[in-house]
Amino acid sequence: MKQLNVGILGLGTVGGGTYTVLKRNASEITRRTGVAINVVQVADRNLANAKALATDADVTDDAFAVVNNPAVDVVVELIGGYTLSRELVLKAIANKKHVVTANKALIALHGNEIFAAAKANNVIVAFEAAVAGGIPIIKALREGLGANRVEWVAGIINGTTNFILTEMREKGLNFADVLGEAQRLGYAEADPTFDVEGIDAAHKLTIMSAIAFGMPMKFEQAYTEGITKLEQVDIKYAEELGYRVKLLGITKRTDNGVELRVHPTLIPEKRLVANVNGAMNAVVVKGDAVGPTLYYGAGAGAEPTASAVVADLMDVARLIDATSAQRVPYLAFQPEQVQDLAILPIDEVQSAYYLRLRASDKPGVLADVTKILGDRSISIDAMLQKEPDENETEADIVILTHITVEKNMNAAIAAIEALEAITTKVVRIRMEELAK
Amino acid sequence: MKQLNVGILGLGTVGGGTYTVLKRNASEITRRTGVAINVVQVADRNLANAKALATDADVTDDAFAVVNNPAVDVVVELIGGYTLSRELVLKAIANKKHVVTANKALIALHGNEIFAAAKANNVIVAFEAAVAGGIPIIKALREGLGANRVEWVAGIINGTTNFILTEMREKGLNFADVLGEAQRLGYAEADPTFDVEGIDAAHKLTIMSAIAFGMPMKFEQAYTEGITKLEQVDIKYAEELGYRVKLLGITKRTDNGVELRVHPTLIPEKRLVANVNGAMNAVVVKGDAVGPTLYYGAGAGAEPTASAVVADLMDVARLIDATSAQRVPYLAFQPEQVQDLAILPIDEVQSAYYLRLRASDKPGVLADVTKILGDRSISIDAMLQKEPDENETEADIVILTHITVEKNMNAAIAAIEALEAITTKVVRIRMEELAK
C-alpha cells in the first residue's frame, strides 16, 4: 500500500475535525485513492489536549519540528493568523513538502509569495478549506467550470453575518441584539470585527477572484463594508419590495477593471441565493457557457472544514499515481474496491407518505382509516379534511404520515381502498425531509 | 505548446455547443491547462451542416473514421443512444484513445463494460456531462467530497419534468396541458416518455449512486415512477401543508441495501432544493463530515452541457503534465498566464441602489428628489412612500434605482441630503439582480 505521511499544525476545532475524519473514514479514503493517509506528527501548544486526541501520532508543541520532519510528506497548516503561519508554510515549502491550509487570511495576504515559492519547489499548496468551508468551490472554479470564461462570482461566504441577517429578518430584531445572541450560541466571536465588518468575506472573495480571472491576490484593494450599520427598517422595506438583504462578496470582470467588493446587498427574493439562511454559505458563479451555477453548504465548523482539508490531502495523494488514467477512478473508488452492494427493493424502502382519499361524507370513515393506519404502526403527522363541494357527497381527506416501510403502506392502502366509504383509489406520494 | 487532438462524434446541439465553446474560449482554456485543445475531426450524418460549423476540422459522415484516426487522442461521443455509441466507444478505447461522453443511457447501461475496457487500456472515460448538464456534480462526488462517507444523494435531475411541475404549481394547470406547452417551447420532446416517466432521471441517478457508494451501475434495479399521473389537486394540497412536489432521484445507503428510486416527492418548502424551479437542476449530497451540500445549475442545453464536456477534455489534457504539482495551477491559470488585472475603485462600480430618505411631509419634496436623480440620469425602478407615524411630521421614502455608476449616486445623495426637507442621512444599499 502506498503511504502519504501527514503532519498537522494546530489541533483546535478544524485540526481536531481533520484528525477525526481521517481516522473515521480511513478505509473509505483508501478505497478511493489507493493510498493510506497517515497522520504521523501533530503540533499544538496544548500538549495534553493534543495527546488525548491524536493517540496514533507523535505529538509536539514545536510546529517547526513538524515542518522539518523528514518523515512528513505534507504539512496541514491550521493554526491561523498570518505571521507564524506564513513562516511555517514557507519553511515547509523550502523543505519540499506539500502544504494544505484552511487559512484564508494567509492566502489572501501572502498567497502570491507562497505560490511563487511552491512553484520553485514543485510542491502543491492546496486551500479548498479557505473558502466556504466544506463546499468544494475552489475545485469547481479551477476545474469543474474550467471551460468557461467566468463573468462574475457572488457569494454568501461568512456564516456569522448570514446568521445575524437571517435572525434580523425572521425575528424583527436589531443588529446589536442578534449579535449578542450569536455570541451566546457560538456563531460569533467575542470580538466579531473580522466577520461583521466583512473582512473575513473579503479574504475569501480575494481568493475566488484570483482563481476566477487568473490574477494575483489583491486583498488590499478590496472594498469592504460590513453589516454593523444595517437597520431593521431597511430589511423590512426591502422585503416589502420583494428583496432580501445579504452580505455578498462580489467579483466581476468589466471592461474597465475587476470589481472586488463586499457589502450588504439587496437580492430579488426569488433567487435561490436569497433563500440561503442561517449560518450556511452559498456561492453563485456565472460562466459564459454554463450560465449561473450555485454551490451551497456549511461554510464553517470542525467536520465541514475538515471535509475540504481531507479532499485536498486526497488530491496530494493522487500525485503518487498521477500518470494513471485512473488518477481519479471511473467510479470514484479503486476498481478492485468497487463493491457489489445490494439494491433495496422498493417494497423495503422506508419513507413518509402523502395520502389522498376520496370518502363519502359519513360518520366513522376517518375512524376506520386511522385505525387501519394505527394497526400497522403508521403514525399520522398531519391531516387536511376538506368539505364536500356543493352538490357533492364526497370529500377529500389528505394525510401526511411519519416514516414506515413501503410494503406496510401498501397493505394499509389496500385495506383503506376496501372500505365501503372510500370511493376511489388512494393517491400516494412519497415524502422526504432531506434534512439529515 | 503541448497539443491535445480531439475527434467529435455528433455535431448536433451538444456537439455544436462543444465546438463553439472550445473555439470561443480557446485562449482561456490554454491559459488554464497549458495545452492547446484542437478539434481535428468531426463526424456527423449531416455533412453540409457539419462543414458549415466545423470550419477548422476535417468533416466526415463516418464515425468509425474518427475512432480509428491515429491523429485523434480523445474521442468525444455525442451521438446518443446505446448501440452504435457503445460500439464506437469500445472501439475508441481499444485504439487507446481517451473518451469523453455526455451519454447517460450508455454509461448507466454499459458503464461496467466500458470502464473495464478503459482500465485494461489505461485510458480515461469521462462523463461529467452525463449528469445534470453543466453542474460539476461528478467532480464534486468523486473529488470535492471524497473525504466523506456519502449517506445519500437526492436530485432534481430532469429539466423537462421540473419545468412541467413548476408550471403546474404556478399556473394551476394539469399535466397534459403543461406537457403541450413544454413541447411547443422545446422543453419536452415529441415523444416525452424518457423524461416524464423518470427513465432519464434513473439513468443519471444510477451513475451518481455508483460513484457515491463505489458500486457497479445497477440501472435495471432502479425503481422508476414518473409524473404523468400527478394531479393538480395534490400539488395544491401539498402546498397548503407546506410542501412542494418534485420529481426526485434518491439514492441512499441503508443497512439492508442501497435505495435507488425516482418518483414524485413532497419536500418541505423551506428546503433550498424545493425552490429550484423551471428547467433548472439541483443535486443535494449528504456526506458524513460536510453535512448536506447542494449544487445548482442548467441541466441541459448546448453550452451548459458543453461546459462539462470541455471540462472533461481539460482533465484529459492535464494528464500530459500529470506529475507536476501544478497539474491544476494554484491560481487555476498557468503561472506565466496570470494577469495583473486592475481593480475597479468602488467609485467606478456600477450598481442599482436602494435609497431610504426621511423627509418632512411637505409638498414638493418628492419632486425635488426625483429631479436630482433625473438630472444625473438615474432612473427609478420602484418607490415606496410611507405615511408619517402618528404625532410625526416626517415619513420614510424608499426608492429603488436602475443601474448607475457609484460616483454619480454619491453626488445625487449629497444633493438630496442638502435639501431642506431631508432631515437625516440617506441610507444607501446596493442591489444586484444576479440573473445574467
What is the mean pLDDT of chain A? Answer: 96
Q: Distance between termini of chain A?
A: 35 Å
The CATH superfamily of the largest domain in chain A is identified as: NAD(P)-binding Rossmann-like Domain
Physical arrangement of strands within the biggest beta sheet of chain A:
3-2-1-4-5-6
Radius of gyration of chain A: 27 Å
User: CATH topology of the largest domain in chain A, anyone?
Assistant: Rossmann fold
Quaternary assembly: homodimer
CATH class of the largest domain in chain A: Alpha Beta
| CATH architectural group of the largest domain in chain A | 3-Layer(aba) Sandwich
Can you tell me the overall shape of chain A?
A: globular
Beta-strand percentage range of chain A: 25-35%
Number of domain units of chain A: 3
Number of helices of chain A: 15
Give the uncertain stretches of chain A in residue-range form. Answer: none
| Main β-sheet description of chain A | 6 strands, parallel
Structural class of chain A: alpha/beta
Largest interface: A-B, 146 and 146 residues
Secondary structure tally: strands of chain A? 17
Tell me roughly what share of residues is in helical segments of chain A.
Answer: 25-40%
Pathway (chains A, B): Amino-acid biosynthesis; L-methionine biosynthesis via de novo pathway; L-homoserine from L-aspartate: step 3/3; Amino-acid biosynthesis; L-threonine biosynthesis; L-threonine from L-aspartate: step 3/5
Binding site for NADPH (chains A, B): 104
EC number (chains A, B): 1.1.1.3
Keywords (chains A, B): Amino-acid biosynthesis, Methionine biosynthesis, NADP, Oxidoreductase, Threonine biosynthesis
